Amino acid sequence: MNRSYVYFMANKNNTVIYIGVTSDLLKRVYQHKTKFHKGFSAKYNCDKLVYFEEFTDINLAISREKQLKAGNRKRKEDLINSINPEWNDLSDGWLFYFN
């Protein structure tokens, strides 16, 4: 089964939220943490995975990403708080796969 993900990355103080879509969440989180791509998330130090949703169809994931990006900050915070009220890094412990 091909999986796709919509995910939120936040900075240390949770003041910036980046929303993305990927078919390889582990690899993409690693790229955020190492600032592999020099874009928005690298500029604003969004290196903490605080929320994600899994899909079996990339088109559904892309549609959901667009919907989430169009929403306001409060809706994004509410989603994060619904599963991760402490805004912990959900990827803690994942990076040992890359060592």
Automatic annotation (TrEMBL):
Residues 2-78 form the GIY-YIG domain. InterPro entries: GIY-YIG_endonuc, GIY-YIG_endonuc_sf, UPF0213_domain. Coiled coil: none annotated. Belongs to the UPF0213 family. This is GIY-YIG nuclease family protein.
